[in-house]
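User: Can you help me understand a structure? I only have the sequence.
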Amino acid sequence: MNATYEPDDNEKVTDDTWICHIMATEAVIGVVGNLLVCFVILRVKFLHNMTNYLLVNLAVADMLLCLQVFLFYLSASECELIAFAPVDVGLRELFCRLIRSRFLAWAMCYASAYNLCVVTLERYIAIVHPLHYARKLTTARMITLIVMIWMISFVLPVPFLFTIEPSDDVNEICSEANHPHPAFPILVSIFSFFFGYLLPLTLMSLAYYKMQVTLKRQAKALNLQHARAAAYDLLIARQNLVSMLKTVLGALIILWTLSYLATLPCINLTEKGLFLFCGSKGYRYTKVVCNLLFNFNSVINPIIYEFKYKKFRQGLKVAFCSCSKKHGGNRVDVEMDIYVCRQ
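Assistant: Let's start by predicting it. Here is the structure, written out as tokens:
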């Protein structure tokens, strides 16, 4: 599969720059939104738990993906949003190998999908196997798992590093894509579809189904036992968190599925594609819309947290209330302001 959200150099959609402006603006919003998530969770103490730390890790992956998209469209020849051309040989090499080749794009896609899998795994064990949570999800194990995911995410797209290099043309930054074999885009497409899309989404869907069944069974048991309010509050908190994460997964499925379905029929956007419409202008515009939706998945998570995650909303208020009082008032006043903000 070609890049899931960026046009190749030979598939320029239109000479109009409005597409590039939208892509760049979307990327900036994504960077700011995910930075805000990291700031709030790391600053507010009552958000310091394993689940929220994993959400920070996911936000970092989404933020880097948005940053990569911004750099790509900032300097794309069809966009010309800014005259950008690294003059240093080393910078040109890095820019072409990492950005224009879409190496970082693929790496961040894998990182985003599999970091969301880690969040799902943590909630799955906490809800379905709570007695084994402390033993299975130690801090050392989680750190090891996260490091492995980031390493794998950067290893899988390594072949892209060798598809583009700095151009000898003074008017161009990078050369045209040079695939090592004609079957390279097809193999990448199949590999990405199964390991970057189908596998993680299937595993997460099954895990959330199992969690939903377990939560319903627990609610029924508490009702029969006439449990105390504290037990119900804990169960409701778990249900709300799972509901929020299911919304995140649902958004990913909808936004990514459209892009994959639009890309799979036409590996190469030329008249020589598998179908006649692969080289049509209408299909190219369809790909643009799908690319926008694909990128939007990295923008929407902070919005979901704001509307679906009550503790994050509280943390947002606390973070900014404490910031506004940082340089004034004593400790008691600040603590009182934080308490008011949480109400």
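Now, to help you interpret it: Confidence is low (pLDDT under 50) at residues 1-15, 269-273, 327-343. Residues 309-343 form one domain. Let me know which part you'd like to focus on.
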